[in-house]
Request: fold
Amino acid sequence: MARCVFLLLVSVAMLAGCGRKSASAPKVTPAEQAKAALRDCAENGLVSSNVMEIKGYFEEIQKSDPAKGEALLKDLGDLLKIGQKDPAHGSAAAKSRAKALLGKL
Reply:
């Protein structure tokens, strides 16, 4: 009987901590997400399919800051045009434009 009581108390003590919520992860802003995606292009000069992902982040920025979002989307369009000229190889122009976009964020 004492053993059952002991096991019951140990079980209750172990379960007491299970209901606590852990601290939630910090929310990543659209600007931070765009920076992460643009860094690849700034490093290798390749304009890949992540441009559409970046466009979505810029559209989110545009909701809170229309002027900034519009400027970012225009520059992203320019980056896309650069990438379409030679999509298989990285270019210095693409690197430069991606770095400029990173600076605006």
Summary: The CA atoms of residues 82 and 93 lie 7 Å apart. The first helix runs from residue 2 to 16. The chain has one domain: 27-104.
